[in-house]
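Why does residue order matter? Because the sequence determines the fold. Keep that principle in mind as you read this record.
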Amino acid sequence: MRSYSELSREDLAAERQVLLDQYNLLQGLNLKLDMTRGKPGAEQLDLSKSMNQILGDEYLSEEGDCRNYGIAYGIKEIRDLFAQILDTNSELVIAGNNSSLSMMFDTLMRSMIYGEIESDKPWAFVEKRKWLCPVPGYDRHFAITRDLGFEMINIPMNDNGPDMDMVESLVASDSSIKGMWCLPLYSNPDGYIYSEETCRRLVSMKTAAPDFRIFWDNAYVVHHLYEDNQGSIPDILSLAQNMNNPNRVYQFASMSKITFPGSGIACMSSNQDNLARAQKYLATRSIGPDKMNQLRHVKYLPNLDAVKILMKKHAQLLLPKFKAVDDILNQELNGLDIASWHSPLGGYFISLYVVDGTAKKVVKMAKEAGVALTPAGATFPYGVDPRDNNIRIAPTFPSVDDINKAVKVLTVCVKLAAVEKLLGE
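Structure:
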């Protein structure tokens, strides 16, 4: 098939009728498929089911009885494990309960109430405070900064990470910009990997706000799809230290997509000064996290090698799903000049770019044909995609058979919306 832009109006009209017939046929199948969120499938969850019985009568960590109060910052063994995963020092790690998103929210709330080390006042009293948001990005990140009253500024992404010329220009001139979201390895949803140069520029750049912070969500640090082709990023805390901005970064990670999303372990890591300040308030907030859950995790995953073995099993389940999406997109859309996408090396999503002004229409049409996708615009602050062209595909939860059906529906909708746009309809 030739590029749609090369077709005459008569050919476009004929193509539209063919696509309408296909769409009506798909609607008649009464599909009920859900690709809205990046959730592990049941087979992935089963990989860790033996962890439920692993403790038996055990309850002792190196620091004592995990059944009781205390050990507010996580047992040593789990902090050691996260340090291996993040390639950092265990003294720079606080381990909590299951949700890294909760730790991000709490960290930003502390800044709102108390400010940061360099702050002259709590961030809640900073008028017209702003936050940088690489886009497309993670909707739950944006929800936090939206609900806490930050004006969010879109930063375009490329295959090396955020547009650093734009970032550096903004933070150098505006002291009301207090921070930035970063998902540096297999970004959500594009699957991009921040280059070492990007990481270096982020921690070395001059900022008008002395208390500027980067929230470094290392959600997919071990979530590779390929054993022989794995993305990597530098240890951001060491890099920040070497660039004389040791306080700049809060790093987060979790076991949510390693073991169980609802009952994993989350962590935050930063430099000693930031952690000491956080620990002061954490000790007031809670007497300690769920240490029995931390203990069962380290009994099941005692070291990084054990984590890598488990993640290889995850990859064996996920790779066929990602390949199924890529294969159908190539079969149905390649050469038409109406869509583009990046095939990631890891993470949980594929980002599809369609003809400008058609993403919402595509998602609506897909829903009416029985395929639920992430709402168009969700990958941007305030739910507004300025070009209305980004669709996040979440292939991890459905079966390969369901993915084949869902992506077939999606591609028909993409083509139909593109043809109608070209016809001026």
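The mean pLDDT is 97.
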